[in-house]
Amino acid sequence: MSWHTRFARPLGLSFTFAVALFLTLPAFAVAATVANPLCPSNTALFNPDTGSDIVLPAGFKVSVFAKGLNFPTGIAFLRHGAGFDVFVLESGHGLPSVCNEQAKFGSGEFDPKNPFTPDILVFNQSGTLLRTLGKPTATDGFQAAGPAVDIAFEKGVSGGRLFATDSNQATHAQGKTIARAS
């Protein structure tokens, strides 16, 4: 048996396997462990760049439009000319927990950077953040406790009034009886 026959095939196979393994490493290297700001030991593996956990029908592909979203629950598009803007509704915390209590983050539930309160992020068609709408303040915006549910324009992509819903249904108190049948 010649040297080529005896050693080249196993070495070639090992080299091919090593190159294949090396090429898959960037997908793993991008993932980061992120911590909850209120409960630092509450962590999650966060890898929004690859879309590897999204199952798609044949012929479709995943691409990143916007990063760093916090529990998006609704989306609406507004056309203007040949372009469009994308309105993304972020829910806020929803169910009560010590790890997502909006009143305990930063300066509280009206902190403009509070990730546990709902808002609407407006992006241009390239995915650049243009502005934030509806962030709770003492006098305006969504209810701080959320959750925000959905958004839509009155006339679809042609615009009109933007409708946004939030719930705050019995997340912090007992439900109220509005009327009783006698």
What topology does this entry show?
Blueprint: H1 3-29, E1 32-35, E2 43-46, E3 72-80, E4 83-90, E5 119-124, E6 129-133, E7 148-153, E8 162-166
- The total beta strand count reads 8
Identify the overall geometry.
globular
Largest sheet: 4 strands, antiparallel
Helix/strand/pairing category = alpha+beta
Please characterize this protein's 3D structure.
The strands form 3 sheets. This protein has a 4-stranded antiparallel beta sheet, with no helix packed on it. A two-stranded antiparallel sheet has the order 1-2. Strands 7-8 form a two-stranded antiparallel sheet. The termini are far apart. The protein is α+β, with helices and mostly antiparallel strands. Helix content is 15%, strand content 26%. The protein is globular, with a radius of gyration of 24 Å.
